[in-house]
Amino acid sequence: MSGNVLIYIAVMAGVTYFIRMIPLTLIKKEITNQYIKSFLYYVPFVTLAVMTFPDIIEGTASIWSGMAGFIVAVLMAFFGRSMFQVSIAACVVVFITELFIC
Amino acid sequence: MSKIQYFKKGVKDGIPIFLGYLAVSFTFGIAAKNAGLSALEAVLMSATNLTSAGQFAALDIVAGALSYVEMAFTQLIINLRYCLMSSALSQKISQKMPFWHRFIMSFGVTDEIFGLSVNVKGKISPFYSYGIMSVAIPGWTFGTLLGIISGSLLPARVISALSVALYGMFIAVIIPPSRKSKIIAGIVIISMTLSFAFTKLPLLKEISSGFRIIILTIVIAGVAAYLFPVKDTENKGESEV
Questions:
Q1: Could you give the CA distance from residue B158 to residue B20 in angstroms, rounded to a whole number?
Q2: Residue A73 forms contact with B (CB below 8 Å)
């Protein structure tokens, strides 16, 4: 079993590294095609938004504490707070909310 | 800025990642123990893979003793989103940068490190990436170890609260540009709404989170790029993201 686990780990590490490395090393030039350029420009916004919601309310002990953290984070980010402040505030809000409702 | 200053900035910006990773990998450590992995195996898996969804899925494969091909294929599907992220990131790397940096930076393409990297204005310094990686990787690995040796070390409340650190970071990346651009604001709202629908609607909710990210990214960014092509002048040198 133990030897097998190491091979599993090697296989998954290899596959995962290649997925990350191939585009980063093959795309050396600045892309000039306007459509692809625009597509890649929008990718991070979509990806990060999709990863954030609804996951932020599902990982916490209650969806309401997650929701409170989400709203506070959005408001703070909207008013220009730093990434660190937004992130910590979300954690603190979740913690305090759960003290009351859980 | 000098290389050291970039590195330090990476370390500082990476602290929320450290906290978030600690919490998530802690739960991974507990799950790894339940799946029958030793502490060394779990830590080795975290240190070499640095991916949450892929590793959780791997536990089922190891526990079920599935084939190596199935393991490879599962990782390919779940982690395919990194391919999109790396493609986007490739545009932020200077062509003058020594080539070998790309091989090291590749290892650090995770959802969270990508989130920070795209937030850099203009080209990215590899030393900024290394700064982030130098706190993120130990956070991920150490959290795994803590989880596997003592599942009850951190109270559940703390884990629950820390689990939102990463999302708070994502929000800090996508909201400020949404304030400046109605197009981006619309894209963010549509993305979150569809993402929510994908986790609730029948049939759609059967789709794994990795695939949900890929499908929605390709469709929404694809349509947005068609409807609202980014003008060259907007995107030159200092991009918004």
A1: 11
A2: yes
